[in-house]
Amino acid sequence: MSSKQLVALYLVLIILTGAYLFAVEGISSGRFSLDSGGRDHKISFFDVTLFLVLILAAGLAVISSMAYGKKNSPRLFFVSLAFFLFTIMACLRLVDNFLLGGYTYIGISVSTLEFLILLSLFYALFRK
Asked: Quick check: 78 and 120 in contact, CB under 8 A?
């Protein structure tokens, strides 16, 4: 898989995530409001770590994508994909904490992304 195909895959995943947020979670319906302190209405260590995880995951996704572009290794592709999925998962957790509140289906999405991340890393480790 080439770097262009990797970027195309990332774009498809971003579009699917956006479609999920608009169609299933209904974030465009106006029923959500920005909660500056998250669910507990105050800035806490948890809120800070959500942002730090997002920044770190995005940075690692960029670095691993650049490495994949240079080496074009199938293993690096799956590592890069795992970091990108981790970035999407971090974004969903931010949306869940600061925008949606209450019960949402994001927990199901996060569990699915965790499974895909582990599957991707497993494949990267054991691919010959």
From this structure: yes
First and final C-alpha spacing in the chain: 16
Q: Within 13 Å, how many C-alpha atoms sit on residue 28's CB side? A: 7
**Helix (H) or strand (E) run with residue 19 in it:** helix 3-23
Helix, strand, coil percent values for the chain (each to nearest 5) = 75, 0, 25
Verdict on whether the full-model pTM lies above 0.90: no
What phi, psi does 25 have (nearest 5°)? -85, -20
- State how far the Cα of 115 lies from the Cα of 39, in Å rounded to an integer: 26
Give the model confidence (pLDDT) of 2-35 as tens digits: 656 766 777 787 788 777 767 766 666 655 555 5
What pLDDT digit, counting tens, does each position of 33-43 carry? Answer: 555 556 666 77
Conformational region of residue 42, where left means phi above 0, alpha means psi within -120 to 50, and beta covers everything else:
beta
Other C-beta atoms within 10 Å of 90: how many? 22
